[in-house]
User: What shape does this take?
Amino acid sequence: MNIQNNHYPGIFISFEGIDGAGKSTHIHFFSEEIAKRYPEKKIVITREPGGTSLGEKLRETLLNDSMDIRTEALLMFASRQEHIAQVIEPALRQGDIVISDRFTDSSFAYQCGGRGLLVEDLEYLERWVQTRVVNNHSFLLQPQTTFLFDLSAQAAEQRRSATRTPDKFEELDIEFFNRVRQEYLRRASNDLQRFVLIDSSLSIMVIQEQLKSRIASM
Ligand code: TMP
Assistant: This one.
């Protein structure tokens, strides 16, 4: 992995996947393992929408209230702007490892793939919120590595219904999650350097081994 990818000394990693694919289960394990690999670095575990006090208020609204789909996209990016400014950028600047449970790939997958907004419109928001200038060099702030937990929409729905009460997104039908999944896979196939595809139908132990071997090469 190219640690200088974001022109900061820190390392930025995101976890992605449709609801029920199991990404959150693996974040804790991953953070413990990467802490062994980089004992001198501070680990910051965070999430989107959320990660700041304003972001958590926006999360509450986003996951519970109905709203126009453009409002939804704008609030996701509002939460992200605050998250980058308050948490992600300061941490990366001081050399920390930032692990975010979801980042901008979720917006493309859910708001474009799922809801049907135009990719170009979100690319505009992405550029606006994530462009940074360091040493006169302008770049798009992105995770160096994104773990995509991939699972069929049917299997994910079964897992969700066994474990929790659905929020606004989790109540959506299987077709919605099929589209979200396809958009994730399309993005991953366009950026094989950043994405690591994890087959979430495999056992937790097998996935943990894959995460460990990935960390060993970081
Ligand atoms: P979580 O419970 O996995 O943290 O996910 C929160 C929900 O928000 C999940 O259903 C995905 C959705 N979401 C979007 O629709 N767009 C986004 O940009 C983000 C970050 C999350």
